[in-house]
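lol ok so funny story. i was supposed to be doing the assay writeup but got distracted and ended up predicting the structure for this chain instead. priorities right. anyway since i did it might as well share w the group, maybe its usefull for someone
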Amino acid sequence: MEKSVLIVDDSNTNNILIQNVLEAEGIKSSIAFSGDEAFQLIKTEKPSLILLDIMMPIVDGFTVLEKIKENPDTKQIPVIFVTARNDNQVKHKALSSGAVDFVQKPIDINKLIELVKIHLSN
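and the output, tada:
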């Protein structure tokens, strides 16, 4: 089965940027603009990795992560938070909630690619 990444961010600009970078590396990806849309895509596409924004309207990234980790079918999917939030409390909460990594915006594309490849190879 081909590995794929689900990008979840309410910013179309961020989604397209990340998707273009991943696809240039030969990594298949799909986009969700909200937590609800992410849940639907997770069910149908079964991504190998999720890149998740924290600050989104209606359902924030922490709630999305919590629901992913509660579901036996999805709890093994690694999640990397990609967020503008940069304080240590948020980073600690993200990692202690079950995220495998944390990337701050503006995104260091090389670091993001490296992390994606590491977590896709596990």
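The beta strands are 4-8, 28-32, 49-52, 79-83, 101-104. The chain has a mean pLDDT of 94.
back to the writeup now i swear
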